[in-house]
């Protein structure tokens, strides 16, 4: 038997590729490109593997058309290194752009934080911060050398100066004649003449175009301002921002011309960076507990404690896509979904009608998803499939499948993942101590879903040594893509069969359900409302700067895009009252603000105004209360006694007649809310009661709507309500019927706030 087994083994013919440990051919090719031929391979096999590796590395890919989708840091890093990092200037010419010179980026436009958010306050513009970031990373050494007749060393110097200029941030108003302005102009002068002239022109243009004046007063990133100037110079200065807001087709043309003009002069390839749509848009995220938040910056800040259920994008005009974007996707040889924030990077891009279908229609391209490396708080720290465990790569794909129109079929085949076997255990351990957890690659689940996981060491060892950060190495990742592309004939033997018929694509789409107002229009509306609000101080020693208070309130309201403008229509005054004159009964709560329907005013205890966080809490609660307006005719609390024994109290709420109310809610909506507040009807539609047991307090409807309003906007603003809502996190059981009833009431309350209170923005 032994003899026969040996003879059987000897008859087996092995390919040299069989000697590589990976199971899938794609992984074998990538590993061969990145690591080389294993040392212990037999000489007869080694020469074949060496020859194969040489072929994979040396076959030219300069003509390959590459399109990468994503946003911000993840996209810029794989295209050409993260240009916002200080050490980028040491190696600015890395990544996909160096191996694939025809690399183009399609960028997400839902960012609304930082400098981008400041621009959106004043201009009818889309979010440009990520485009500026990726544009700088897209600078190619060869383009600079050809355009300005210089050598590679000089090209590096140009990249260094551009990084200094484009990444410069300032917190004070940007004005001419200052030392900072002169320093910038001096640095620009060090660039080649034509490049310097163009940038100086943009710098001067910022001060000559009156439409941009307000933006110079805010904290900004100079690169964003220069890109804005490049766009605005394409629109006649006689056309004001108010007119542009109503004619977004002007901005559509200007963005294309402005971005490409700037890209050419700084050395990026033609159409190196374009937005997924030229239409301003904002992110809307629904959590599994029913709460919706609006704004990409809120997603990164939110700590809801629930997984994200779904992601939506609200557009501010007709959705426009550049014909050139669709053409680049159609002609692409490689299509890559870049790593980045799960819900605010890839998904918003493919929410743009037509883009996902354009990718599916291209059935010849290599299509790769580059997986994120680490769990991200607020986005990938909880799995919707199983909130008790950590996030897997399959969870990421499941989120794409759920949120991208038409799902993920035809968008990518290979999933490039980091191999945890390549990361030192000590590094993983130290990361775990800091609460940083890698996204686990569940290979079998990916195979079941017909995706090919490719685990390889694509993280940067250099970044790990220098900064202690594990991130994608742009050069290694580009080599991995090259290996896959040059070896694609081995595994792309036929076009995909599950993509269906090609769809005819349009470049203009009408958003379902109408459009939202532009962020700048909302900011203008907030300011206009606050101009009419009177600020009063009560108390001799209380000194409040009324204008500064309005500025602070404006910032708070702007920071919560979920608040509709019409929520500000129910108060006219704000009173700041010192503690000596504060006569509010605080026996049952520590809420130091309320809405007074007698004079339609918000009243806040003076000490709350001086601290931003306390002011925010006080304002949100009172603003929520104001939506009830003057709904109440009378409120009475009566003692309940039997045989001189006090059993508790009964709270009576008498409503004003419908035609005498000034209330945000209709009569039916008000009735629904009062029932959710556990008020009991009496047969009289204007009379409600609530029994309060002896020694207990209760939250009356007015205060409840204020606390719920603050909690819905940000759960950290109302810890009392957060405590009550924690029942939704508890596993429900039929053994405790009261718990089920309580959880049901909480869910209905959340739905009421989502669908009624915040139904429109």
Give a summary of the structure in a few sentences.
With 761 residues, this protein is α/β, with parallel strands linked by helices. It has 31 helices and 22 strands.
Distance between the termini: 79 Å
Give the biggest sheet. Answer: 7 strands, parallel
Question: Low-confidence parts, pLDDT < 50 over ≥5 residues?
Answer: 493-499
CATH architecture verdict of the largest domain: 3-Layer(aba) Sandwich
**The number of domains:** 3
CATH topology of the largest domain: Rossmann fold
Please, what is the average pLDDT? 89
- CATH homologous superfamily assignment of the largest domain: CofD-like domains
Total beta strand runs: 22
Q: Which CATH top level class of the largest domain fits?
A: Alpha Beta
What overall form do the CA principal axes indicate?
globular
Question: What Rg do the Cα atoms give?
Answer: 30 Å
Percent helix range: 40-55%
Strand order, largest beta sheet: 5-2-1-10-11-12-13
SS summary, helix count:
31
Q: Provide the structure class.
A: alpha/beta
Question: What proportion of the residues form beta strands (DSSP E)?
Answer: 5-15%
Task: Give structural notes.
With 761 residues, the protein is an alpha/beta fold. It has three domains: 2-31 and 42-54, no CATH class; 66-492, CofD-like domains (Rossmann fold, 3-Layer(aba) Sandwich), CATH 3.40.50; 519-626 and 699-757, no CATH class. 43% of the residues lie in helices and 14% in strands. The chain contains 31 helices and 22 strands. The protein has a seven-stranded parallel beta sheet, sandwiched between helices. A hairpin with a 5-residue loop joins strand 21 and strand 22 (687-693). Helix 12 (222-232) packs across helix 14 (248-266) and helix 27 packs across helix 29. It is globular, with a radius of gyration of 30 Å. Mean pLDDT is 89; it is low at 493-499.
